[in-house]
Fold:
Amino acid sequence: MRHALAIFRKDVRHLWPRIAIVLAIDLFVGWFSFATPPGLQDLRPPLRMIETLALWYLIASVIHQEAVPGDRQYWLTRPFSRLDLLGAKLIFILVFLCLPLFLGHVASLLLRGISPLTYLPEMLGCQIFFLASAALPVAAWASVTAGLVEFVGFSLAAFVGYIVIISLVASRAQNDFYWVGLVWFHTTEVASLTLAAAVAVLLLQYFRRRLWLSRSILATAVVLSALPWWAPGWDTAFALQTRLSEVVAGSVARIIFDPARDPRTSPPSNSSWQRQDVGPISIPVRVTGIPAGMALYSDRARVTVGTPNGRKWKSDWDSMNALCRVLSGAHAGIPERFLPGDGEYWLCLNIDRSIYLRASSEAIHLRARVALTLLSPEQITPLALRPGVQAIPHDGVCWVTRGDRLLKTDCSWPARAPADFNLRLRPGGPWPRPSWDSGVSYATYPTSEELWQWSGQAVTLDTPPVGIDVATRKAVAHFERDLDIPDLREWTNR
Amino acid sequence: MTSIIRSHALSKRFRRTVVLDGVDLEVPPGSIYGLVGPNGVGKTTTIKVLMNIFPPSGGSSEVLEVDSRRLGPRQFEQIGYVSENQELPDWMTVGYFLEYLAQFYPTWDPSLAAELVHQFQLPRDRKLRHLSRGMKMKAALASSLAYRPKLIVLDEPFTGLDALVRDELVESLLARSEGATVFISSHDLAEIESFASHIGYLDGHKLQFSEELETLSARFREVVLTFDTAPALPSQWPASWLQPEAVGAVVRFVETRFDAERTPAEVHRIFPDCRDIQAEGMPLRSIFVTLAKASRAAS
Structure:
């Protein structure tokens, strides 16, 4: 430990100008994210990118002080234990990267009048996620390179390789890039992979100096991290989500086929991705048993169809498959996956085109499984139409920005954003939710190094509203429901 | 104590290129062992394998009675290693470099370090990157002597240095390495000859011989035979006679196993008409030139 501290002090002595610059960037970006000056919210992502690159640079710099590849470094024959050397680098990362992140979280909570102790586990979770998905992988990456030029070159090569792999699997993945509430599963998968690869490489490099094996592990990790796009593992994701959730009675949210519905009320085609292999079909269903005040969100659905001659076709958990409703009034015709209570809905599916074309002439057997999220009763908070920070329940804060015809509301909560976020205009009522709300996460633990989770909505209006409310709901439970229709003609022939 | 450095059938390959092939080495304690040989024969690789910078591809080696693959902090506390192309932390000043390293050596002697800085006229507050090659080498040597290592390993330490700096380094090395074993690789034979006690000759990826410099010098002689008329040359020369050549009534060769009684007897057996035999000692440089030529001719 004494030697590790000596190496650490030496690194600080040499790198202090870089440390100062990175901490200044950290401070500025932290302040910017916290204060979010009106009209400048769009600068947040590029600033985050600059901060990320600065952190990477600092990590690479400290690792390269004692570059592992090579045979000419003076330290190779000095009495440094490899454990001390690795320990010194980890101490550096903890002190100059993790600690500022932690202090930033503490400061942001204190400035909002929230006790940091309330969110201590979440803050520690952010640290773990930061180490697993950023700091240690970057350190591992730097440990297989001899200097910054090589580090940047390898990083660019890996990035290009990753993009190529993603492009190759994109046709297979279709629109499955939208993880929405289950994004935690994807980020956990990737973070576990990067953590495992990073730990293996750091141990191999510092204790065995196995350069080519380490580089192979990192290359494999890059390829594997693209794998979830190709084989997302929805079954596992939904099963895990259900297991982590509260158990709900079977009578809650029962789905019943409702063939007596007027076909003219069916939603517009949702096959907007111009897929040639499937055709859209909307099946009328009735959902019952949603507890009073609660609502449902339909995450995804998968379907199996069979023809009388024994042919079967099975979909994956396609992102275009879900229970939906068609909005009326000012937003008539827009399909939404948010189901506000018991009532008539549609099971919007994409099925194999050849079977789809025979759906009205042959007895097609359809079985669907729907993944659902039960949402708590909504909490409505009025917001003033003025700039500046406004507090909302669950320690959240919102900013309202008004443009010429644009009204934008951004809100953030420590640790966890609500599962459903909706703006209500006065007058005007609810605004349709975005099809793929990237702010939604069902995670029970932090899956990002950012403590504050964001959600927001922008609306375009001819006349400004008198007021707006933010309606939020929490995820109460996740579960799956089945629907079995032995002969689709009962509906398709109407 | 047994050998400070010992290797058995040590080999090293880089992909398909063989650099070392079955090197057997014994470096006795207290010796100044010069590992010599032409450029590119594997002197640096041998040292890097011994210092656990490269893993061996085959065979084994021990340094300070520890398998070289297991050399760790405890052994490096007793080893001073300086190499011509070592990458030093250029941003450090000489003073900070020594202060920094002092923390890792239990036997670091600050007064010895100060003496070495003074002796080498090293500017304490100048950054290593701003030092000349010779000064950098002196700084590296000072940082490797200040803890009185048991083993000093120097890889081509004099390359590119002017004669004055070289002499200074050698003088300091000899003065400060009392009781220590010095293992030094070099192709500067004249320099090595002036202070080495043992010599190992590496060529053709193998250690051709390894022995005390005294016995080496004693067994190599340049022999000149004089005849009345041009002699008839034998179809087969003795194996220990290298580079035989005849010019008129004079025959020259290098005897690699010179013995004051045996060599003249052998000459008279092959050349009964030999009128005169002159055998002169050879400088190390000539010995190695002869060996290198013989090795090349054989291959």
User: Anything to note?
Assistant: The first helix of chain A runs from residue 2 to 35. Chain A has a mean pLDDT of 88. Chain A has three domains: 2-232, 254-376+478-492, 379-473.
